[in-house]
Task: inverse folding
């Protein structure tokens, strides 16, 4: 947890000093259906965009698991992104080129994206021999999602980059998790917000809770924390999604009483999460092992290896996992089994013990 404390402190300083000027971007909903309102049916997946569907599962035997070197007790990188900008204004910003290069590296390394919701619920149905990665984007910034004049993801947004990489590397599944605040993707109109959220969720992306106004939660009362969470849950319901299974803590800062962000209620509305995510600073444990703590899931900031990122950010950790393949989660292609080398049988939780396929 010390590593996460370092990242939290850095994040508070960086985010508190970020410029408030708007970043130039395409009109986010240009080309969207003009009659859409909150609650209207979501659009169908576009035939000219890669699908988020996974190939049919296989039935893994111990021998098959050995052949593909399956290890579903291994570590999973959960990558954390913030703004995507041609000119970085803060250390946590990334340029479109940096994001694209990192995702292409992931694709070449056999990584397949899953959502945070799929991760925390153990729905990791990726092909045998591949490795899950969770792509997460905080704050619902306009650089994450917008539509161009043709109704397609605008150039150099996170969603456009993900689809471009998926086209170049067909095994790279185009999904991600967007944790949003009160103005998802910089949109003020609830009508536009609904179009955006429904466009994403209908194509396999997750849009979930990052609190209403991104406050420093340790400084708030239990009631104020619940209000921050519930107000976003109510908004997401109006926009056609939710309830959220996952929550990303603002600044990665955990309240002193951790249960206040796990479940609760405010003004008659209840909330409850299956995964609460921090801001750093190492790969997460597998959701199938005893050491996995759904109440405080580690993430890795997307960045190079300078300064504080020398050992805490994505370049370092992806290189480390490449050098330690025995520590990395490798799938068996069978969602009904948890395949592991014999030496890891004992670290699987009792909940998943009947699914163990050891070799």
Result:
């Amino acid at each position: 947890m010390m590593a996460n404390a370092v990242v939290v402190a850095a994040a508070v300083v960086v985010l508190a000093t970020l410029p408030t000027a708007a970043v130039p971007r395409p009109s986010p909903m240009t080309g969207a259906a003009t009659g859409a309102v909150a609650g209207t049916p979501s659009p169908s997946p576009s035939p000219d965009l890669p699908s988020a569907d996974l190939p049919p599962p296989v039935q893994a035997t111990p021998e098959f698991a050995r052949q593909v070197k399956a290890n579903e007790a291994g570590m999973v990188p959960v990558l954390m992104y913030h703004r995507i900008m041609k000119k970085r204004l803060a250390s946590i910003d990334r340029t479109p080129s940096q994001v694209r290069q990192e995702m292409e590296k992931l694709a070449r390394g056999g990584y397949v994206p899953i959502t945070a919701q799929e991760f925390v619920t153990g729905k990791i149905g990726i092909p045998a021999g591949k490795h899950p990665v969770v792509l997460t984007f905080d704050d619902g910034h306009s650089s994450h999602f917008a539509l161009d004049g043709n109704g397609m993801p605008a150039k150099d947004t996170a969603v456009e980059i993900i689809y471009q990489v998926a086209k170049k590397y067909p095994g790279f599944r185009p999904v991600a998790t967007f944790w949003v605040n009160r103005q998802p993707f910089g949109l003020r109109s609830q009508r536009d917000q609904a179009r955006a959220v429904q466009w994403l969720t209908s194509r396999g992306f997750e849009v979930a809770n990052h609190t209403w106004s991104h406050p420093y939660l340790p400084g708030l009362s239990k009631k104020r924390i619940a209000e921050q969470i519930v107000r976003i849950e109510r908004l997401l319901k109006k926009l056609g999604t939710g309830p959220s299974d996952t929550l990303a803590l603002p600044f990665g800062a955990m309240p002193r009483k951790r249960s206040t962000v796990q479940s609760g209620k405010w003004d008659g509305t209840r909330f409850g999460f299956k995964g609460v995510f921090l801001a750093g600073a190492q790969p997460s444990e597998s959701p199938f092992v005893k050491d996995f703590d759904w109440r405080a899931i580690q993430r890795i900031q997307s960045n190079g290896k300078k300064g504080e990122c020398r050992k805490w950010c994505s370049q370092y950790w992806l290189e480390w996992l490449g050098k330690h393949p025995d520590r990395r989660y490798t799938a068996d292609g069978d969602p009904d089994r948890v395949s592991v080398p014999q030496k890891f049988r004992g670290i699987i939780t009792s909940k998943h013990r009947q699914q163990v396929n050891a070799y």
